Every structure is written in C-alpha cells, then in structure tokens.
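Notes from the 1:1 (GR / supervisor)

We went over the backlog. Supervisor wanted to see one worked example end to end before approving the batch request, so GR pasted a single chain during the call. The sequence is below; no edits were made to it. Supervisor asked that the structure be written out right there so they could see what the output format looks like.
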Amino acid sequence: MQHEPTYRQTLRHAWRLTWHNKSLWGLGLLAALFAGSFGINNFLGQLITSMSNQGEVVIFYMPNFNYLPGSIPTGYFALSILSLVMLAILVAIIYISIVSKTALLNAMAEYYKKKYAPRLGKIWNKSLDYFWQIFTIEVGRKIAFFLLLFIFGLVWVNLASTESAWGIIFTSLLLLITLVIALVIASISIFASGYVVIDNQPVKESLKNAYKLFKRHFLVCLEVSLLLLFIDFLLLFVIAGIISLFFLPATALSLVAAATSSPLLLVFGIIFTLVLLIAVIIIIGAVYNTFYTGTWMYLFMEMHHAGILSRVRDFFKRFFK
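Structure output shown during the call:
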C-alpha cells in the first residue's frame, strides 16, 4: 500500500526546510523573477486583476518615438540600442531565474533524501544541464495560464453586469472551475520539473508521468493546493496591510517636513520608506516562493518514492508467482 503524505506533514516539512535553510531564500527570490509563484507571475493576482478590470484586456500603447532627440534615423538607432539592452537584460533574468529554480528543486530533493541541503555551488553547476527542460515546462505553464485567463476574461466581461441569481451562480462556478484548473496546471508543472531533475526524464515523458502522479494522489494534491491558495489570499492582505503601515512614517515625516520647511527631509522620508517597503516585500516573496516550492517537492519526493517502492514490490510479486 502506497504511503500518501497528509497536508499537515507536507506543510510542516516544507516550513522546516524553508526556515532552517535560509541560504535557499536567495534561490527562491531569483526563481520568482520568472519561474516562481510570487509577484507578477502569481496567477491569483492576475485573476483578481482581470476581475477588477471586468475581464477587459489592458492595452499598452507604444510611446511616440517622434520625440526622441536628434534626427529620425538617430532616434531609431537609439531605440534599437535600448531594445537590444532590454532584451539582453530580459534573457539574463530568465536564464538566472530558471537555473535558480532548478537549483532550488535539486537542493530540496537532496534535503528530503539526506536531511541537509547541499552546497549552492555544487547544485548550481548541476542545474545548468536542465535549463532547456525546465524552461520549456515554465513557458508551457505560462501559456496555459494565459489561455485560461483569456478564456476567463472573455466570459467574465459578459457576466460582470449580471445581477440575477443564475448569473451569480454561474459566475461563482466559473471562478471555481478556473481556480481548480489553475491548481492542476501548477501541480503538474512542478511534478514534471521534479521528474526532469530527479529522474532526468525528457519533457514529454515528465509531463505524462506528472499527470499520472497527480491523478493517483488527487485528494492530497487538492488539499495542499487549497491550503496554498488560502495562504495566497492571506499574503495579499498582509502585503496590503504592510503597504498601509509603511506609509505612516512617510506621512509623519511629511508633516514634520512641512512644519520645518525642509523638502530634503520629505524626500528622505519617501525614499527610505519605499526602500524599506520593497525590501520587506522581496523577503516575503523569497520566503514564500521557497516554501511553496518546498511544499510541492516534499509531495513529489514522498509520492515518487512510494511509486518506486510499489513498482518494485509488484515486480517481485509477479516474479515469485
């Protein structure tokens, strides 16, 4: 009989890993830049944004390049250089983020097997070999989330003004179905990453096995997904509260600056508050992304290990029949 971890065991082990291995927070922070579960990549935040915008697509207008200094050719040349620099920065961020996530997965797998995290230099070099596999899985996850949000937005824009009882019920069902599908996508993607890192499987095979693993342990995956979703909601409220609290010192300093006629004090107060606020949010993001990844990796290691034992046991049963 396979051992299936409970959500209490999973969260407890993930938090122990996160808290006692603070060196992994740096990897969690770097992974969150592109391949993480916190910040602009957070599906929950994107979903709430879509709902607040009534499902409408936000259009970003290109700037008017006629106002670039110099002649038109010079302006386009400057724009080309700027675009190349921005593209290089984007590629560097994606590369560092993917390798950091792979290193984080490797470190967590080692920790759950040996009860200690390996040296970062060792797992970083090892993680370079899996860049393209993890990158493919992450891009696929983002495309799936985008399509899910797009479909949700198309339906939501027609339901935003509906006030009937059936409209409210259908809207609630739509939101629930969207969240469940998102949770399934997130679960399968990280299980697939685990198969790539632990078993060195190609992307197609890892996705197939990840789906089978998720289906076999559907209930515990759903429990953990819902708990992490609840933590997501709590984090949104906590961050909103932190932002409100951090602007209190800036407001006090602005009053003092107005009373003393010191604009320098006002500028210092605003900059200091923003820097401190950004630092706190970065730490929260690093810790949460590490904890989130650790939670799913613990599930994967336990269920993956159980699956191997079951297959070995079944093999010997058939062999000795």
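Supervisor's comment: The CA atoms of residues 140 and 271 lie 39 Å apart.
Batch request approved.
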